[in-house]
Design goal:
Elements: H1 7-11, H2 19-33, H3 42-58, H4 61-70, H5 72-78, E1 92-93, E2 122-129, H6 130-135, E3 137-148, E4 164-165, E5 174-181, E6 184-191, E7 200-201, E8 214-225, E9 234-237, E10 253-260
Parallel strand pairs: 1-6, 2-10
Antiparallel strand pairs: 3-8, 4-7, 5-6, 9-10
Length: 266
């Protein structure tokens, strides 16, 4: 269970929280710790397990009442043998049912392939001196910028190639992934890796971008650092992040500013 010993503490809610508050807290935490937002982060993986465990109990009136009655320690001791989980351990549980859609809907990925999807933000770091932070300064920032492929116009297909329905996702642009955890199975919806969410595929991909639909290039821009900026404060440049999909807007460029002491050393 980690350091926290109370399901209410894990979700950050009070004991008398209403059902809507439980769902809202869960949704917020899952967005924060979801693997898609924390790649290769083992701490986030453990945290999401705790969050799911807490939500599985507190979102169920019967389990929550039993939990409140017994207390956390007694409940943990008894949950594997008693009727508290009542078959929950072996069932195919889709947490998305609590939100009226696929689990991916929580992250904006459970929609139709034709819906526009905003691109991811790009994050870079720069270092400035303390006096530059106090007075403000213009700085050149370099970062990888994904430019839409001019050859295929972003669809990833070789020009002149006829697109067919993706055989992997059958045109939905998504795939369902079932993972096993301590409580059983959890279903998630994510972008189809075969067609990159387009729902269509072709025998030949674009030779210029290799089917990605975009090409990364090194870009340099001048950024005005405002006076009085704080250490580790981020500046957002709209529309300079990853390109969107299905006509969605680009993400933003997030520039995280680190301030050196007067002499330029840490």
């Amino acid at each position: 269970m980690g350091n926290l010993d109370n399901y209410y503490e894990i979700l950050g809610i009070k004991k008398d929280a209403k059902e809507a508050e439980v769902k809202s807290a869960y949704r917020k935490l899952v967005k924060q710790y979801h693997p898609d937002a924390n790649p290769d982060n083992t701490e986030a993986e453990e945290k999401i397990k705790e969050i799911n465990e807490a939500f599985a109990v507190l979102s169920d009136a019967q389990k929550r009442a039993e939990y409140d009655k017994q207390g956390h320690f007694a409940y943990q001791q008894d949950k594997s043998s008693g009727p508290i989980f009542g078959g929950f351990g072996g069932g195919d549980i889709n947490f998305a049912n609590y939100f009226g859609g696929t689990f991916g809907d929580i992250f904006g990925e459970g929609r139709s392939k034709s819906d526009p999807k905003r691109g991811r933000d790009t994050t870079v770091s720069i270092h400035i001196l303390a006096n530059e932070a106090a007075l403000g300064v213009d700085k050149e920032v370099s970062f990888d910028f994904a430019e839409i492929c001019t050859s295929c116009s972003g669809n990833g297909l070789k020009p002149g190639t006829k697109a067919d329905i993706c055989p992997h996702c059958h045109g939905s642009g998504q795939e369902r992934v079932i993972t096993q955890n301590a409580f059983g199975k959890m279903t998630q919806t994510r972008e189809c890796p075969a067609c990159r969410g387009r729902g269509k595929s072709a025998s030949e991909t674009c030779p210029k971008c290799f089917g990605k639909g975009s090409m990364k290039m090194r870009k340099k821009i001048m950024v005005k650092i405002p006076k009085g900026i704080k250490n580790e404060q981020a500046i957002s440049i709209k529309g300079m992040g990853e390109p969107g999909k299905q006509g969605g807007e680009r993400g933003n460029l997030l520039i995280k500013v680190f301030i050196r002491p007067k002499h330029g050393y840490y």
